């Protein structure tokens, strides 16, 4: 019952997150279209020589792409921060579920076996990591087993 409730909450958060991303993408698309229309109108009003017009258009496109790139980087950082927050919440909920299950069986949380079947698959972008790996001492056998397999 508790795990279903937590799963439902997690699904609801994921749905809201996806809706928020879609809304932001639509907003970026609309702004991009508006900016392109304004740029076309501006170029037509200037009636510049063809060479100057092309150079000006390229400058405007470079500026637009740079701004769009910065906006997307900001959005990516926000989404990564949200992902970390959701992962922390998930760990907390998983711990609560394990503690609850342990209290139902009458075993203290330290003496019960860890339930590793409750892993959640999170799709993520491949990154090139460098440095140390942080882990809990009690997870060392599982980590070694996963590294070997």
Structure characteristics:
3 helices, mainly alpha, elongated, 149 residues, single chain, 0% strand
Assess the beta-strand content as a share of residues: under 5%
What is the succession of H and E elements? Answer: HHH
Distance between the termini: 33 Å
Q: Unreliable segments (pLDDT under 50, ≥5 consecutive)?
A: none
Radius of gyration: 25 Å
Count of helix runs: 3
Largest sheet: none
Beta-strand segment tally: 0
Mean pLDDT: 81
Counting helices, strands and paired strands, the structural category is mainly alpha
Textual characterization of the structure:
The chain is mainly alpha-helical and 149 residues long. Among the domains are: 1-47; 51-103. Helix content is 74%, strand content 0%. The chain has helices at 2-46, 50-105, 140-148. The longest helix is centred in the middle third of the chain and has 56 residues, at 50-105. It is elongated. The two termini are 33 Å apart. The relative contact order is 0.07. The mean pLDDT is 81.
Task: Provide a concise account of the structure shown.
With 149 residues, the chain is mostly helical. The protein contains 3 helices and no strands. This is MYO5B protein.
What layout of secondary structure does this protein have?
Elements: H1 2-46, H2 50-105, H3 140-148
Protein name: MYO5B protein
Organism: Sapayoa aenigma
Coiled coil: 3-103
